[in-house]
C-alpha cells in the first residue's frame, strides 16, 4: 500500500492510498483520482514523508522527507483502529534515521537483508529514491512520534 500526498489545480491537498505507484498512474490516467473538495481530475503528487512496502508485503521503510502536520483533519478524522494499526507499523520498524536513503537502496538492490525500516530523507533524496523505483510512503508525525 502506498500513500501519496496529492493536490489539485485549485490548491486543495489530500491523501490517496493506492496498491502501487502503477495503480496510482493508471487511476490518474483514467481520471479516477479526483479532488474530494472540488472534483478536479487534474491531480498531482506532492513530496512527503513515506513508508516503503518491501517484497514480502510487510512495511519496509519510512523516510520523513518533508514535515508532516502533527495534527489536523487527516489525523483527527482517522478511526482509532487505523491509527493503532499505523502505530503498530512504526513499532515494528527499525529507525535508521538519516541513513534511510542508503539503507533503503541496500535493501532494494539486495545488498542488505530485507527488513522493515523507517527514517528521514530530504525532499531531494526522496525524489531520487522515487526515480530509482524504490516505493515508499508517508506517515504523519503524530504516528511516528516517540512516546516518553
Quick structural overview:
With 148 residues, the protein is an alpha+beta fold. 32% of the residues lie in helices and 20% in strands.
What gross morphology would you assign? globular
Residue share in helices?
Answer: 25-40%
Question: How far apart are the first and last residues' alpha carbons, in Å?
Answer: 29 Å
Strand order of the largest sheet: 2-1-3
Low-confidence stretches: 54-76
What is the total domain count? 2
Number of strands: 7
Estimate the mean pLDDT confidence: 76
Task: Work out the helix count.
Answer: 6
Biggest beta sheet summary: 3 strands, antiparallel
> Beta-strand percentage?
15-25%
User: What is Rg?
Assistant: 15 Å
Tell me what the structure shows.
The chain contains six helices and seven strands; from the N terminus they run ββαβββααβαβαα. It has helices at 21-29, 73-76, 80-91, 100-108, 123-131, 141-144; strands spanning 2-8, 13-18, 43-46, 52-53, 59-61, 94-97, 117-119.
Keywords:
6 helices, alpha+beta, 7 strands, 32% helix, two-stranded antiparallel ribbon
What's the topology here?
Elements (H helix, E strand, L loop, with lengths): L1 E7 L4 E6 L2 H9 L13 E4 L5 E2 L5 E3 L11 H4 L3 H12 L2 E4 L2 H9 L8 E3 L3 H9 L9 H4 L4
Parallel strand pairs: 6-7
Antiparallel strand pairs: 1-2, 1-3, 4-5
Amino acid at each position: 500500500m502506498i500513500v501519496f500526498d496529492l493536490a489539485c489545480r485549485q490548491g486543495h491537498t489530500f491523501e490517496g492510498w493506492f496498491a502501487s505507484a502503477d495503480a496510482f498512474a493508471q487511476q490518474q490516467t483514467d481520471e479516477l483520482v479526483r479532488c474530494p473538495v472540488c472534483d478536479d481530475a487534474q491531480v498531482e503528487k506532492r513530496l512527503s514523508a513515506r513508508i516503503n512496502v518491501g517484497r514480502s508485503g510487510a512495511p519496509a521503510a519510512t523516510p520523513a522527507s518533508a514535515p508532516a502536520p502533527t495534527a489536523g483533519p487527516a489525523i483527527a478524522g482517522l478511526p482509532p483502529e487505523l491509527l493503532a494499526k499505523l502505530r503498530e507499523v512504526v513499532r515494528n520498524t527499525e529507525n535508521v534515521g538519516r541513513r534511510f536513503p542508503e539503507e533503503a537502496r541496500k535493501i532494494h538492490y539486495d545488498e542488505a537483508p530485507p527488513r522493515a525500516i523507517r527514517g528521514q530523507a530530504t525532499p531531494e533524496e526522496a525524489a531520487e529514491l522515487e526515480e530509482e523505483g524504490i516505493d515508499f510512503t508517508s506517515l504523519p508525525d503524530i504516528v511516528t512520534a516517540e512516546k516518553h
